[in-house]
Design brief:
The complex is a heterodimer of chains A (111) and B (115). With 111 residues, chain A is mainly β. Chain A has strands at residues 4-7, 10-14, 19-25, 29-37, 43-48, 52-56, 59-64, 69-74, 83-91, 100-101, 105-110. In chain A, strand 6 and strand 7 form a beta hairpin. Chain A is globular and about 45 Å long. Chain B is globular, with a radius of gyration of 13 Å. Chain B is mainly β and 115 residues long. In chain B, the strands form two sheets. In chain B, strands 2, 4, 5, 6, 9, 10 and 11 form a seven-stranded mixed sheet that branches. Chain B has strands spanning 5-7, 10-13, 19-24, 31-38, 42-50, 53-57, 64-68, 74-78, 87-94, 105-106, 110-114. The chains are: A mainly beta (111), B mainly beta (115). Chain A binds chain B through residues 30-31, 33, 35, 41-45, 48, 86, 88, 90, 92, 95-101, 103-104, and chain B through 2, 31, 33, 42-43, 45, 48, 50, 55-56, 58, 88, 90, 92, 96-106, 108-109, 111.
Chain lengths: 111, 115
């Protein structure tokens, strides 16, 4: 099946710093989503971005489907940005509609 | 608030017992997905229903079963529980059921602890 690799696995920042999280996937996809799992376990939708670039406040994302990667940018990080960021993809092949998740990037933002 | 409702939020039970987790999808969504998140396995897809019918199956154990009812809510039944079944169980919903399902939205999860 499709492989989804996220990097880095762990990231520690000082408040106000910028960061880039990467998601590589091994096959073509119909759907790509970024989620933030907060310390309480909630999975919060950040972006639905099978291709192109989107921005939402301090966060933005870019997916280059032809090169099979997506990037999540976090600017001026805040302590509330801490948590785990997941990339999830829906592969084109195989007829499956499920989302396949990467292992996540654990972000810690220190005050 | 994603619009997906899961109950209960927390559940503590003993080995060998059976539990039922409930999920109400967002209004208008026809697909329901169940995921399991454990510390060592990450987020694993269990099963998907679309408009009452099973659509896809993942790594779901035979001790687990699910269904989607005519009002589109779904239940995940876990039986003969083992310590290793302790996990966070998520339900998600989406509008579509074909290859282009659209965006998935997740509920807050049901945290199951098996003692």
């Amino acid at each position: 099946g499709i492989q989804v690799e996220q990097s880095p696995p762990d990231l520690i920042l000082q408040e106000g710093a910028n960061s880039t999280l990467r998601c590589n996937f091994s096959d073509s996809v119909n759907n790509l989503q970024w989620f933030h799992q907060n310390p309480w376990g909630q999975l919060i939708n950040l972006f639905y971005i099978p291709s192109g670039t989107k921005q939402n406040g301090r966060l933005s994302a870019t997916t280059v489907a032809t090169e099979r990667y997506s990037l999540l940018y976090i600017s001026s990080s805040q302590t509330t940005d801490s948590g785990v960021y997941f990339c999830a993809v829906q592969p084109t092949q195989g007829g499956s509609e499920k989302l396949v998740f990467g292992k996540g990037t654990k972000l810690t933002v220190n005050p | 608030d994603s619009g997906v409702t899961q109950t209960p939020k927390h559940l503590i039970t003993a080995t060998g017992q059976r539990v039922t987790l409930r999920c109400s999808p967002r209004s208008g969504d026809l697909s329901v997905y169940w995921y399991q998140q454990s510390l060592d396995q990450g987020l694993q897809f269990l099963i998907q229903y679309y408009n009452g019918e099973e659509r896809a199956k993942g790594n779901i154990l035979e001790r687990f079963s699910a269904q989607q009812f005519p009002d589109l809510h779904s239940e995940l039944n876990l039986s003969s529980l083992e310590l290793g079944d302790s996990a966070l169980y998520f339900c998600a919903s989406s509008v579509g059921g074909g290859l282009y399902t659209g965006e998935l939205f997740f509920g807050e999860g049901s945290r199951l602890t098996v003692l």
